[in-house]
Amino acid sequence: MEYFQAFVCGGVLCAIGQILIDKTKLTPARILTSYVVAGVFLSAIGLYDRIVRWGGAGATVPLLGFGHSLAKGVEKAVAEKGWLGVLTGGLSATAGGIAAAVVFGVLMAFLFHAGDKR
């Protein structure tokens, strides 16, 4: 049942993004940024924790989950270090994912020759 819930949760989040791409004039970059901000906002009001408990990886893997991780990292760092945690908590909590994205991006750039679309 956990797999099904993750599939449904992730699918709904992706479907909303696809609808925004198809039906609005928003650029993909603005939609992605909006998803991260929405994850932070939903975490701040306590709603995203419930979504994560139900949807599991379907809620934590998409960009909303990245925003949720940023918010949780800031919350934890502020509790431990005070207001300095506002500046350090988000990056500390998401450093592994950011580092993996950079490393795999560089690896793919070396393995495959990217060129202009024609």
Break the fold down into its secondary structure elements and pairings:
Elements: H1 2-23, H2 28-44, H3 48-55, H4 57-60, H5 63-81, H6 85-111
Description:
The chain has six helices and no strands. The protein has 118 residues and is mainly alpha-helical. The chain has one domain (2-111). Helix 2 (28-44) crosses helix 5 (63-81) and helix 5 packs antiparallel against helix 6. The radius of gyration is 16 Å and the shape is globular. The termini are far apart. The model has no long low-confidence stretch (mean pLDDT 90).
Global outline: globular
Mean pLDDT: 90
Please give the alpha-carbon distance between the first and last residues. 45 Å
Please work out how many helical segments DSSP would assign. 6
Largest sheet, in brief, is:
none
Q: What gyration radius follows from the Cα positions, in whole Å?
A: 16 Å
Residues in helices, as a percent range: over 70%
**Beta-strand content estimate:** under 5%
Low-confidence stretches: none
Offer a concise description of the structure:
This protein is mainly α and 118 residues long.
Top keywords for this entry?
mainly alpha; 6 helices
